[in-house]
Amino acid sequence: MAVAAIRTSSLTKDYGGGEGLFDLHLQVSAHEAFGLLGLEGAGKTTTIRLLMGMIRPTRGSAYVFGLDCVREAVEVKRRVGYVPDTTPEFGSMRGGEVVAYLAGLRGGVHKDRVRELAQRFDIDLGRRHRDYSHDERQKLSIVLAFMHEPDLLILDEPSKDLDAKGAAELHALIDEAHTAGATIFLASRAAAEVEMHCGVVGLLRRGKVSRVMRVEDMPEELQEPSHKALPP
After folding, report:
1. pLDDT tens digits, residue range 134-179?
2. What is the 3-state secondary structure (H, E, C) of the chain?
């Protein structure tokens, strides 16, 4: 039996006052494209940070390709391409230095792949990270996530801050990765973005998944107009 790309059981991060993520039971099969749809504050980023081993759960468990997201977080990070909700700070490091540093940690990164991605997103890797605009920082995050052609892409609002051309390149890149066999886990506030890429969607409200369904079975009010976000 194939190991699930993502599997959680009773996964909970309780911040108190009803904030956090509660009793998440989820299974995402290898090669699947899964969308997590919810408003800001619904728990999307908390879910992803738990999967990436960045925070510890209050209770429950999470696994990525059978790896424990707490005990084996370093190996999880090697297997995953991750676009965070907030781009990290790399200060005076140049874009190319950031790429080289993370490539060394992950392995399997080819210079031609980095060059291709940088050209597609029109980003100058010779500039210092602190001098990048918000748009350029997001583009670098995308380059870092896709450069090692990972088995799993975990994307947290990946089109945020991108210009129209950058967003179009991102959407093309997600589809290319999925066609090549990667599993996609896409968290977004926009139903249109989830519909564009995902076959299955989970609706997240107030820290709980209220429903998991095929994307074609999404309620009509979520599908129109095309950029409408999940209602409260």
Report:
1. 999 999 999 999 999 999 999 999 999 999 999 999 999 999 999 9
2. CCCCCEEEEEEEEEEECCEEEEEEEEEECCCCEEEEECCCCCCHHHHHHHHCCCCCCCEEEEEECCEECCCCHHHHHHHEEEECCCCCCCCCCEHHHHHHHHHHHHCCCCHHHHHHHHHHCCCCCCCEHHHCCHHHHHHHHHHHHHCCCCCEEEEECCCCCCCHHHHHHHHHHHHHHHHCCCEEEEEECEHHHHHHHCCEEEEEECCEEEEEEEHHHCCHHHHCCCCCECCC
